[in-house]
Specification:
The chain contains seven helices and 13 strands. It is of the alpha/beta class and 215 residues long. A five-stranded mixed β-sheet has the order 3-2-1-4-8. α1 runs parallel beside α4 (101-110) and α6 (167-180) packs across α7.
Length: 215
């Protein structure tokens, strides 16, 4: 079984069900209610989350303390967390992310076998470096988050995540990154991927500054 935890709901693709999270209630408490309502029992489950990420080159993992690095980089407002990682060997990076200890307890209490993955594994898990062009800024949208990234000589040259609440703000952020990467407004490209309500508006606004914008 697959469970996707977004900022607003739990999605059970195999059951064709969605469960809206109650406002002011922890993700863990919402998860318990969702599992009760849908009797979502299974021998194995893959849980996808969309929590803040930190990317690390794989060769640095042995030299650094991943958990300490994550906690220093990402603010969790005092919440106790469990730091996890997914490896993207094709890109020579590992993605550090987290779930709350309470959510981990709910998962452990309800499933004997489970995997917890960041939603980026759906995007990059089976991808190849050769799938991506250089001199191109990619923007992948998922659940009110924009992941911006670019490649150089077969490696990630840039990666960051931003809130994606409105088109104007995304334009400012993407153009700032585009300038930082020293890309040409006439020759190079921005590619918009994933789902966001204002994608067409974003494309039109970006096209005023960058000639090649692809959806």
């Amino acid at each position: 079984m697959i469970i996707k935890i977004t900022k607003d709901e739990f999605v059970f693709p195999t059951l064709g069900k969605e469960f809206k999270q109650a406002v002011g209630v922890s993700v863990a408490a919402n998860m318990r209610e969702a599992l009760k309502e849908y009797d979502a029992s299974a021998d194995e489950v893959v849980v996808y989350v969309d929590t803040p990420v930190v990317l690390m080159p794989e060769n640095q993992l042995e030299e650094e303390n991943p958990e300490q690095l994550y906690k220093l980089t990402v603010t969790n407002e005092g919440e106790e967390i469990v730091v996890l990682k997914n490896e993207f060997s094709e890109f020579n990076v590992s993605v550090l992310f987290s779930v709350s200890k309470d959510l981990m307890t709910v998962i452990e209490d309800n499933f004997q076998q489970f995997e917890i993955k960041h939603i980026l594994t759906e995007k990059f898990g089976e991808a190849k470096v050769s799938d991506y062009k250089e001199k191109t800024l990619y923007a992948f949208f998922y659940d009110k988050t924009m992941y911006a990234y670019a490649f150089k000589q077969g490696r990630l040259a840039f990666f960051n995540e931003f809130e994606a609440n409105e088109a104007q703000n995304c334009v400012f952020l993407l153009l700032s990154v585009y300038k930082q990467l020293n890309y040409s407004q006439l020759k190079d490209e921005i590619i918009l991927e994933g789902d966001v309500a204002f994608k067409d508006e974003l494309k039109d606004l970006l096209s005023e500054f960058v000639k090649n914008v692809t959806v």
